[in-house]
């Protein structure tokens, strides 16, 4: 990321912690939660890697097309899954945003410019993504208001079955996506 390194490292830590928690959620007994958690773990770790400050590491040129391909595959998977539920539509938008950022970063001058952040993206597309993720963050924040954590007929909920933690995970990834789009 361009600018001071501290916010970049905080974003890396937030996204990596979110990805790690999503891996824990993959142990859920509910198949749909496991599937969603896998996509969210990919997003969390991908966002963490893309957020590493440019002063710490300058990736080789093949990195950005690789990210575009990985998240393009995730977008296709989400597009296929959209027919079964609306949450997959958000995964589709998130994966497409990651492809967009990777393409913009690939076209930006890399040496000394922090992973290519600060390149000229498509202003209309960037604005639409910022608007979408701003709304998503606000809606996710509202959804964090007290939630009854009931899972599996009254027994204690495991780490993978805590709806309030899953919502907090989605909120933090939305905030991370906003931060990344703002630097584009």
The span between the termini is 9 Å
Helix content: 55-70%
Measured by DSSP, the beta-strand proportion falls in under 5%
Number of helices: 6
Given helix and strand content, the structural type is mainly alpha
Number of domains: 1
Tell me the overall shape.
globular
pLDDT averaged over residues: 81
Pattern of helices and strands: HHHHHH
Please summarize the sheet with the most strands.
none
What oligomeric state best describes the polypeptide chains here?
single chain
For the CA atoms, what is the radius of gyration? 17 Å
Question: Which residue ranges are poorly predicted, with pLDDT under 50 across at least 5 consecutive positions?
Answer: 111-118, 149-154
Strand runs, count:
0
Task: Briefly summarize what is shown.
It contains six helices and no strands. The chain is mostly helical and 184 residues long.
Could you characterize what this model shows?
This protein has six helices and no strands. The protein has helices spanning 5-25, 31-50, 63-81, 87-107, 123-143, 163-182. The chain has one domain (5-182). The longest helix is centred in the N-terminal third of the chain and has 21 residues, at 5-25. 66% of the residues lie in helices and 0% in strands. It is globular and about 45 Å long. It is mostly helical. Helix 1 (5-25) runs antiparallel to helix 2, helix 2 packs parallel to helix 6 (163-182) and helix 3 (63-81) runs antiparallel to helix 4.
